Every structure is written in C-alpha cells, then in structure tokens.
Amino acid sequence: MKKLILATAIFAGTVSSYAITNNETPLTNTTYCFKNDSFKEISLDKLPSALNKALKKDFTTAKVNKAYINQHNQYKLELSINKEIKIIYADKDGNWLDEKEISNLKK
Fold first, then answer.
1. Do residues 76 and 44 touch, judged by C-beta distance below 8 A?
2. Which of 5, 18, 48, 100 has the least CB density, counted as fewest CB within 10 Å?
3. Tens digit of each residue's pLDDT (9 = 90 or more) over 37-88
4. Taking a C-beta distance cutoff of 8 angstroms, is the pair 104, 70 a contact?
5. In order of start, what are the domains of the chain with their CATH numbers?
6. What CA–CA distance (Å, rounded) separates 54 from 94?
7. Distance (Å, rounded) from C-alpha 81 to C-alpha 19?
C-alpha cells in the first residue's frame, strides 16, 4: 500500500511539472521603415513624355495618383491598379528602376 501511495505521488509530481507555464519571452521580428524625404512632389503634367509613353505601354490600366522627383531626375510614381496602390520608380527616359537603383536610397 505504501508503494502505491508513493508511486501515485511521484506520478502526480511528474505530471504537474509539465503543467507549469513557460515564461520565456518569444523572439520578435522588428521591421524598420525609413521615410525617404529626398523626393519632392510634382504635378502630373510635369512628367516627361518618355515616361508617359512607358506608363501607357507597361501599365495600361493604371492611373497615376501622385508623382515625385529627386535631384537625379528619377521619378517615384504612385499608381492605382485595380483598386490597389503601387509605387514604382523610373528615370526621365521611361526606364523602370528597382529601389536599389535609386541614387538617394543607396547606402
């Protein structure tokens, strides 16, 4: 009988040790967003004709909401495509640029 009580106590102690909550702090991913202020907003009629042609060719259903320019004559365009907002970059000749290719974004 003593062995049964002892076995029950050991079993209860073992099971209850698994019920203890884990107090470890989970790792979190932190995302940093930096605003690029080197682009200045311009009116849409100041966009170069080559850029307008490239927009009509490659983004036929897009509507340009806003346009920005930096000191290197690179353009940042905010487009509405199928009710979604998309940001694209281009040079004055209508060539599309990656964010890595933008002069003021390089580190």
1. no
2. 18
3. 588 999 999 999 999 999 999 999 999 999 999 998 999 999 999 889 999 9
4. yes
5. 34-105 (3.10.450.360)
6. 5
7. 52
